[in-house]
Design a protein that fits this description.
Number of strands: 7
CATH superfamily: Alpha/Beta hydrolase fold, catalytic domain
Distance between the termini: 33 Å
Structural class: alpha/beta
Order of helices and strands: HEEEHEHEHHHHEHEHH
Number of domains: 1
Largest sheet: 7 strands, mixed
CATH topology: Rossmann fold
Strand order of the largest sheet: 1-3-2-4-5-6-7
Helix content: 40-55%
Strand content: 15-25%
CATH architecture: 3-Layer(aba) Sandwich
Number of helices: 10
Length: about 260
């Protein structure tokens, strides 16, 4: 009964012929559909688990709690709940963007559940701070959040192509724009604030799960310096710099992303 409730709440989909679970966690403004070019490549060898964060995709919007999701810990609790409800252990967690940090927090809360973390475009802090390069100044982040608060659709249309990169393939930016626009506006505004104002740098030292960091060679959201910072502060980690550009190699360069994950595992 608990498993059924969790499955419905997070729109959980399970496939694959392997026994080792591989849990895919999508980024801000996205849903599990963003893994459609990557996840099937692991179905022969893994038990593939997809889900939607509350407020995204076909998740149960009535389960959204503004207090719980005011920090990334609330989303990390959900990841742990999904693993326990489905009786998963030895999980390979693949987290994109903010879900890389959510995965890190989940592994700290319940390290016994996870065997490996695959962190795609992780960022423990988006705002520059003294010697730390996050990619944005504090005024830039505040302006970004104010724009989103004032005009969700306009923000989506302006920001999605920038986040996606690959301007020579405008259909990718359009897909991300459409995904952003499908997200509940009020939840999107709160999730953006939770994401872009987060600071999880101190949490990196608490991670005991081995990790692979996949860093795109050019990424306006999580620059190369951020990937290197995460690698330096995760004690059991490997860093792979992809030739892919933009922030969503799961869409723009799925073959390279798949190859890097398989080479690590």
């Amino acid at each position: 009964m608990i498993a059924d409730d969790v499955t419905l709440r997070f729109n959980v989909k399970v496939s694959g012929r392997g026994s080792t679970p591989m849990l895919f966690a999508h980024g801000f403004g996205c849903d599990q559909n963003m893994w459609r070019f990557v996840a099937p490549a692991f179905e022969d060898d893994y038990k593939v688990v997809l889900f939607d964060h509350i407020g995204a995709g076909a998740s149960d919007l009535s389960a959204y709690d503004a207090r719980k999701y005011a920090s990334l810990d609330g989303y990390a609790d959900d990841v742990v709940d999904i693993c326990r409800a489905l009786d998963l252990d030895g999980v390979v967690l693949v987290g994109h963007s903010v879900s890389a940090m959510i995965g890190i927090l989940a592994s700290i809360k319940a390290p016994e559940l996870f065997s490996n973390l695959i962190l795609i475009g992780p960022s423990p802090r988006y705002i520059n701070d003294q010697n730390y390069v996050g990619g944005f100044s504090e005024p830039q982040i505040n302006e970004l959040l104010e724009f989103l608060d004032a005009n969700h659709m306009g923000w989506s249309a302006a920001m999605a192509p920038v986040i996606m990169g690959n301007p020579d393939r405008p259909e990718l930016g359009q897909e991300l724009t459409n995904s952003f626009c499908r997200t509940d506006p009020d939840i999107a505004k709160r999730f953006a604030k939770t994401t872009f104002l987060s600071d999880n740098r101190d949490d990196l030292a608490r991670v005991s799960t081995p990790a692979l960091i996949l860093q795109c060679s050019e990424d306006v959201i999580a620059p190369v310096e951020v990937g290197r910072y995460v690698h330096e502060h995760l004690k059991d980690s490997e860093l792979t710099i992809l030739q892919a550009t933009g922030h969503c190699p799961n869409l723009s360069a799925p073959s390279e992303t798949i190859a890097a994950i398989k080479a690590y595992l």
